[in-house]
Design brief:
mainly beta; eEFSec_III; Thrombin, subunit H; 8 strands; two-stranded antiparallel ribbon
């Protein structure tokens, strides 16, 4: 369903999305500003079949509200864009924005652009599927690349283009204070693949 007008899903690669707006709402840095909220889509899975021609306006009401209640009884409205089999939703490429957050632990003494980070993954996590993805140092805005795991306790290696000058380190190279890093990625619903995309 489309809350503004009929937009054929085939023209949108059958993708239901609000990515640019949601990413900005999640404060993902480096994105161009979004002027207005984009068109929103909803997947409705009904308990019983309902006769609705394509392109027709559908209004859903909450009839269990008291008629004298000041609350609005209208639950949703929009135009029918596509009919989908609820047992096969792979054709709807629904995307979920995800974020993992960790902390910088220490800087490599031989290579100051390499930082060991912690608390982003558990010890038994499959870090291999995240290798090569971009990681953001929140305080400086610098981007790094996740190179792989470090040890067996869920720590990771992140390589930045250059040394982060704003980091405060002790004599052993341990990071003082709380220096957060973030990893933003997307996952497709209704797909069995564990592929992670940025």
């Amino acid at each position: 369903m489309d809350s503004r007008s009929v937009v054929p899903l085939k023209d949108r690669d059958r993708v239901l999305y609000l990515l640019s707006w949601l990413a900005q709402r999640c404060e993902v840095p480096g994105l161009p500003p979004v002027q207005e909220e984009p068109v929103a889509y909803a997947l409705l899975v009904l308990e019983k079949p309902v006769m609705c021609p394509m392109g027709s306006l559908v209004i859903g009401s909450k009839l269990d509200f008291d008629i004298h209640s000041p609350n609005c009884r209208m639950a949703f409205f929009g135009k029918v864009l596509s009919i989908v089999d609820p047992k096969d939703l792979k054709s709807l490429r629904l995307v979920k924005m995800k974020q993992k957050v960790g902390l910088m632990d220490r800087v490599d003494k031989q290579d100051p652009s390499l930082v060991i980070c912690k608390d982003m993954f558990k010890a038994d996590s499959d870090i291999q599927s995240f290798t090569g993805l971009k990681v953001l140092h929140e305080q400086s805005g610098m981007e790094g690349v996740l190179e792989g795991s470090f040890g067996q306790d869920g720590r990771i290696k992140v390589r930045f283009k250059e040394e982060i000058a704003s980091l405060k380190l002790d004599a052993k190279g341990n990071v003082k204070g709380t220096e957060r890093i973030s990893l933003f990625f997307k996952k497709f619903d209704f797909e069995k693949s564990d592929a992670i995309i940025q």
